[in-house]
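Entry 14. Ran structure prediction on the chain below.
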Amino acid sequence: MSVNYGSKRVVVGAHYGMRDWLSQRVTAVLMAVFTVVLLLQLLLVQGPIGYDAWAGIFSAQWMKVLTFTIFIALGWHAWVGARDIWMDYVKPVAMRLTLQVLTIVWLVGCIGWAIQVLWRL
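Output, structure tokens:
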């Protein structure tokens, strides 16, 4: 006869936490690599670093695409982190849902603004 002590653990999704953990690490590595690329470009700039130098760095199409990709990675990174905070610390469902929707709207707005800034250069 088996004895069952305590409650049985309910698992809501297979490897759900692993996916979030891995996406946080992958996006962090992408952002770190982008930072190194940007710093190397800044080191190659001759003269004072003003608007013209910054505009020159981001004028190449490959840099715009890379920067946009990093903004998407940053948005995803921030979403996973903020969502986990809301899920862990905000217990009322309506308030948690409201905060999650506001976070999504804010992040999409930031990414939209980043698109405008990048392709206006």
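Helices lie at 16-44, 51-59, 61-89, 93-120. Will compare against last week's run tomorrow.
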